[in-house]
Specification:
Elements (H helix, E strand, L loop, with lengths): L2 E4 L3 H10 L5 E4 L3 H8 L8 H6 L8 E3 L2 H5 L4 E4 L5 E2 L4 E2 L2 H13 L4 E4 L7 H9 L4 E3 L9 H6 L4 E4 L3 H13 L7 E4 L1 H31 L4 H9 L20 H12 L6 H22 L4 E5 L14 H11 L3 E5 L7 E2 L2 E2 L4 H7 L2 E3 L14 E2 L8
Parallel strand pairs: 1-2, 1-4, 2-3, 4-7, 7-8, 9-10, 11-12, 11-15, 15-16
Antiparallel strand pairs: 5-6, 13-14
Amino acid sequence: MKITVVGIGYVGLANAIMLDQSFPVTLVDLNNKKINLINKRMSPIKDSMIDEFLPNVSKKFKATQNFEMAYSDKDLIIIATPTNYDVEKDSFDTSSIESSIKNILLFNNKAMILIKSTIPVGYILHIRKKFKYDDIYFSPEFLREGTALYDCLNPTRIVIGGKNKKAKKIGKIFKKLSLNRTVPVIFTNESEAESIKLFANTYLAMRVAFFNELDTYASNRRLDTKDIIDGVCKDLRIGDFYNNPSFGYGGYCLPKDTKQLLSSYNEIPNKLMKAIVDSNHTRKLYIANKIIETKSKIVGIYRLVMKSNSDNFRESAILDVIDILKQNGQQMVIYEPLLKDRCIHDVPIIASFKDFVSTSNLIIANRVDTILKPYSEKVFSRSVSNEN
């Protein structure tokens, strides 16, 4: 079986490396820089396991911009392109998926097409009709940035949207490559698989929002947040994980997936789904107001990334906090070694950590790295543990 993966991001690259263990894999992307890095066996994203595995992939593992080469003789084509949330349409922007399918069918009308991108409920049924092509399936990913390949190889479940022979074949491939030999493979109808992804991420967002509001309560009452969380989470039904307060949930998945699920409710009665989205905005306002109350002349923003050991700050909660602080006239500087720019959001970036610390009267950090420990008297954070 020959396989092509469309999109060199966390999902696409992690899946491609996993599949390379048993199949010849081609990656296709429009970004020439990413292609060149892959062909030099260098990762364009930060993931320690990808860094470890990539130099040892097979000789047939290659990346290209050539659609004909990528699609023409393949048996399975996996689409892992971004689906950003379009505020005006109140839905995911699925144009990259449709563009990919259009190009695939120009060169190949026999391949199974598997979508890994997050999509709205009902999308697979819609896209099959639009392209008059039935062999389009969906399998949601449950990967974390920074540990994408580990999560690919050690899935908690494999969900396949489809119940026919070809869907079963896809499920068998992913089960075979999993290091978790007992991983359940769940075959559902198409729209149920799409729903699983959105409801799972919305539940995680709800959990983040819950512990953030617990922290808001504790902070206002001058209580110890960590003690409360420790006591609450010893209940096995709740669990002692995914409970570290933050400036709000963010990153690429949770903000857009919660909004997409909420928009799909339309006239369906709900209170909780809307409350999850609203709670995140309320938390950012609260964090910004606590910072303003310190009356610090210059506030230093330590890192824009959502969590430690990440290289991504798309939809990072701190970006919204920065905007709120700007509206209140707060003077700020940013330390973000991933950026070579001089400013972002009209806030200056300081390249030197030493200069950043000396310039800042207050340092705000969503996650406190060890480099900040000597300056703890300056640091404002709601994190109570080393967990992301």
